[in-house]
Fold these 2 entries.
Entry 1:
Amino acid sequence: MALVEAARAPASAKPESWSWTDTFQQYPALWLLALFLLILPAFASNFVLIELFGWAMILGMIALSLMFLAGYGGMVSLVQMTVAGCAGYMIAIFGTSVMTDISLGWPWWVGVPLAIVIAVIFGTLSGVLSVRTEGIYTIMITLAIASAFYYFTLQNYTIFNGFSGFNAVRTPQAFGVEWRSPVPFYYLILFWTVVSYLAVVYVSRTPFGLALQGTRDNSRRMAALGFNVTAHRVAAYAFAALIAAIAGVLLVWHGGQISPGTAGVGPVIDILIIAVVGGLSRPIGAFIGAIIYVILRTFALDALVMVGLDGKRFQLLIGVGFLLIVLFSPDGILGLWARWRARYARGNARDGRA
Amino acid sequence: MSHFIGRHPIWSLVIVIGIAILLFLIFAVWPPELEQVLGRKRIFLSALLNGITLGGLYFLVASGFTLIFGLMRNVNLAHGSLYLFGGYFGYEVANGTGSWVFALVATFVVVALLGIVLQFTIFRWMEGQDLRQTLVTIAISLILADLMLWRWGGDFYQVPMPAWLGGPVEVPLVTAVRSSGELVYLSYPLVRLVILLGAVVIGVLMWLALNRTKIGMLVRAGVDDRDMLSATGIRVQLLFLLVFAFGAGLAGFTGVVGGTFQSLQQGEDIKILLASLVVVIVGGMGSITGAAVGAVLIGLADQFGTVYMPTYAVVLTFVIMVVVLALRPQGLMRGN
């Protein structure tokens, strides 16, 4: 797991008296970003709000749950997109959709919590299965679970409605707000994104989070110290599954539909790519990766056509970009940025002496 | 053998009874009550034989996967892409030259060379970094998948079969008895039987090569302790190159075989990758015997699942994996 070790989070280096305000004082860019996202609806079009930033934040949340497991726990789980897909399917089954003979039409305050609980149970059970083995096995077992879920939803018509899945899944109306309209939906996504981001930052500083990072660095030593390594790992899976499940609910409302392809092998790999390209060392990496992915996904087609290539070669672009990142900057964009700053600082220091 | 019976008397009894029931189901003429429960015997026998031949195919792919993992700790998630590329390439060669056998050989060589290029230019530089290697294989599989989609599109392809492999043969297994007392035998495609035979022969050869030759000894030593092996002065890089080439070549070779009795299309790479993953998880990483046992199990589960519970077929495969992981996380055929 050299990559995760190279991208080690700087948590343990922090002083004891860490607090929220410190984080924001340390990174003033975070304040600017928060302000920008808050006032975005004032001047951006609905397309930019929902299709770019909304989608990027949802994918970012799923990638964030992977980042939490991989960056702090050393477990690269490919099952996070599947957990989100599971939550999305449950929303479609408990709520309303075109498939009236499957969808139960329950109100949102029953369906949403139930969907999240089921998805968390699914994610935790996947964790229980995969923590029995170590290291690189995790990626194989979780990939097997993810593809089994995909083929199952594809074959099963009684619960999951097979190939076509569920269409016209409505975002509910609640507290007198029509959450389907772009601006409220944007704020809903933003709210849960911020909550999950802060939750990950917070949990990584709790005794549990520190112990989890201990199991990542040396699980045998942690076991010798009396920590229950397996329990910590399973708990990490449960926490990550919660974030992914919330994102899954938003995902199905965002698209208005869910089908096997939503959580197919392609999207599962895409989440891994997003997390790795952004950088596994810090939670913000997941969102950096997601916004790059969404921008590429939205505009690459036109850009490819413009330079005279076939627009269908999008996957090739993603693949080559991913290969380059993994080959030359194992800790992603965050790593590139850190390296650039280090070089800049060195340059400044040299100039200062001269 | 007697050791196993002594240690696990109950399990041995269960296994013996299971084999007895299986033999009865295969060779006996089914009484009408049984046909009511399980359906026609012909369907059962076809599912059984299909499962075993599919297992043969899975074994050929998974054995390369498991060898590469066992020796180099490289989870090659591009293995399915090598399979699909081999299949397409074999299709082109077989169509161009008209010789199926030549296509098999040429594909093995070309995909093995591709494997050498990958190992030599990329994986050699990130040895010991498991996750990074795996991520690189993911990137390669994405790139290969898109390049293949570019070249061959989304259509179905089938490698042309040589005439001597075509047509069904009668297998000496009784499916039913006519009212006149005449026995009806099962007829089964010859090509599948030949492929099964080929898989068995290759499996035995691989076992012999691993257990009876010097190179095999080196590979086994490398699987157990790579660092000690290189410390004894063996050029492990050469060994890695050889094993990677062999594993990749075998994947391409199997692509031609699979393209002959199944079909090739976009997405097949992921199916095969998933099958190899489950096979080696069930059988045990780095073990050829494990790959064989796992492959037959998964092949049978796949076919019986498809015949007897179509919408839950995947679940059966998955349940096998879960049970094995829960009881023996290291796989069926691997020591602790």
Note: The first strand of chain A starts at residue 173 and ends at 174.
Entry 2:
Amino acid sequence: MKILFLLIPLSLVLLVIAVWAFFWAVGNGQFDDLDSPAYRILMDDDDRPVEQDERAESRTGEQDR
Amino acid sequence: MTDAPGRCFHCGEPMPRGKPLTVRLDGADRPVCCPGCQAVAGLIANTGLTDFYRYRTGPAETPTPDAPDEWNAWDRAALQRGFVRELDGERREAVVLVEGLYCAACAWLIERVLQPLDGVQTVQVNPATGRALLRWDNSRVALSTLFRRMHEVGYRPHPVDAADSVPLAMRERRAALKRLAVAGLGMMQVMMYAVGLYAGAIHADMDPSIQALLRDVSLLVATPVVFYAGAPFFRGAWRDLRAARPGMDVPVALAVGGAFAASVWHTLRGAGEVYFDSVTMFVFFLSVARYLEMAARHRASRSTEALARLLPASALRLTADGREERVALSELAVGDRVRVRPGEAVPADGRIVDGATLLDESLLTGEFMPAARAVGAEAIGGSTNTEAPIDVEITRVGQNTTVSSIVRLLDRAQSERPRVARLADRVARWFVASVLLAAAATAAWWLHAAPQHAFAITLAVLVVTCPCALSLATPAALVAATGRLAGSGMLVARAGALETLARARHVMLDKTGTLTLGRLTIHRTETMNRIDPAEARILAAALEAHSEHPIAEAFAAYRDGHAAEKVHVERGRGIEGIVGDRRLRLGRPDWVSGLAGGGDTTSAETVVALGDQDGLLARFRLSDEPRPQARAAVAGLVQLGMTVEIASGDAEGPVAALARELGIERHAARQSPEDKLDRMRALQATGQRVIMVGDGVNDAPVLAGADVSVALGSGSALAQNSSDIVLTAGRLGDLVEGIRTARRTIAIVRQNLAWAVLYNLVALPLAATGQVDPWMAALGMSASSLLVVGNAMRLGRRSPPARAPAAGTTPMTAEATS
């Protein structure tokens, strides 16, 4: 059981790393918004590019979905 | 999700009657309520962003018309200095607060709409904070272009101070998350070591060196849990003790501190029991409860810069030679002359020096009917000009304005708010005293009888009486009830509010916007037999399309493409124009009949007449209709044994009429915010707990001063921020259900507290006589905590029969009147 004298301090090091990583993530705003990322994946980024002068005329039926 | 029949596809407002406007989306015609929504929906469709409608979680803001040059002022370097950071070269960065930002789809829409603009580098929108980070190349695109584009899709940007880009609530949340992580990870580690220790103890064959190692390591891990994650409890306890009113934090701090101290002592001594596992678990559970409470509070008061929304971002200043220039609000000084166009808000307090108009002062009075103001009259900052352009000489700016004084009144009311001693706090006070007394008595007796055991047994008393169950009793019940209420349209911002809600017996209701819809609707149409009512309404709507007056809103629902020409607004009288081939007048009955000459001069409260050269065509009676569920809600409140009262800024007549209609006994009319607050104080002085329900800016101080304040989700941001509870769906009936749930919650809290006290009554004598083994103490503590939490969870269960009476009647009446 002498191995515990090595393994337990080792687990403490891992614990410190885990806490440090979490603090880093919180400080970076990773946990600031927990709702929208879930939806973000559903929204395609490769939609038709937005044309500024296109919005003058209305009525477009054939939207690409 | 939002395309309910009879609702605008874009903003979710009820659809006007008559021929609806539509917009073509995804191959289907969708109904929209107004040209503004049509334009926004059209823009969204044309830029390929229809996904917005699929992913949004709530309806969008109804777009507000704006002066086209409103945003130009933000291009000036002097103004940008406050909130724009210069990166390298021409690159700029700014953080703006976005009004109307509610969900992920909104954020997505703004990003999609801004990103393709030439020169825009980064757009990051965070729906949780309501803020957007913009980075752009100033040589290729102007900031005003970004702002205007954002506004075109229905959002209103407000610049915020760069230092404030991470709001207070966010900092608080981050700190709480870190504490939660330390407590959680620490708890798991310590539990693991504890399993080893327990296993060793059962077989009694553990190597003493290993046992010492496990204890030392547990101490190492538990220390940050206690002193970092548990710091708020110690700080709270210290604050309570200094104020000589021990609350729940004191027994918590005592238990955590006591158990930790005992464990440290036993670890260093190398003998006796350690309780690191209990300590860390306790800190973690309580941190979770605190975190949930904080999250509920943050959700309810999201955008704190409520004041920013009351005043416009910029003003039209008149130069000495009479030219107009757009300046930012902060640039205005006393003595400046500004021009306020119809539809714009007065930027600061001032005196009218030219022109005459109707000003919508609902901000101060809560009443939506505008007041006539001419040269020499005061124009209050934040009031909206509804009719003709006026020139205003500024007399007060910044902190001295009326709006600021309302905010100050609000702050004061909040700080002077009566503190209600919470049930758990009262029990805690009694509990702390008894535990300390028992510990002291135990110590005294054992010092006398067997001094060598005295310290260990005294510590055991402190540990066994660990008020786990006691301190979990209230938060567990409140969190369960809060979660359940949030699901049914009632957001509880301050958890303690539920307790007061259960005890209050008096409700004070605002009239306009709370009991009523807060806008005029056509109550009755009387025609003179020359045209039918529907036609009369359509003609009137065509004329009123040119007016900003609240009366015009009543007709907006009947617009159907008829256009009025040569329209001309007579201030304080009405509106004149040509529809088809008829010259028509709409407005005060005496003025309208003037077109035909002579005649009828019936002047009533809100009667609008329509006429042509041949005389009167129709009369419309307008009124502010009560909310569909108002009557049922009032009946529900009375049934719960509450005294209901109206306090309104409106005149006696309408207030009394509404009180009669809804079956409310007491009412007070012509109440200023101060009057309402005085009335509230008078009621509180008689020992009553008062619930205040309101929606407007003028209600904010009373809301802040009430024992429990309830704001409507449709109301002003300032009112919502000064409230404990927000009715997110805007249904008054939810309040009745809320009070029922609150009363059940208090019953559960009582049961929990009773159990906790009972447990301690049994455990304390056993511990004091030195008969409790550590494993018994651990088991007892965990079991009673679990029991308490399980009991509280019963509140989270939905019970359909309880909801039915209040909610069942509402949809029917809503259909009938909308």
Note: Chain A touches chain B through 45 residues (CB under 8 Å).
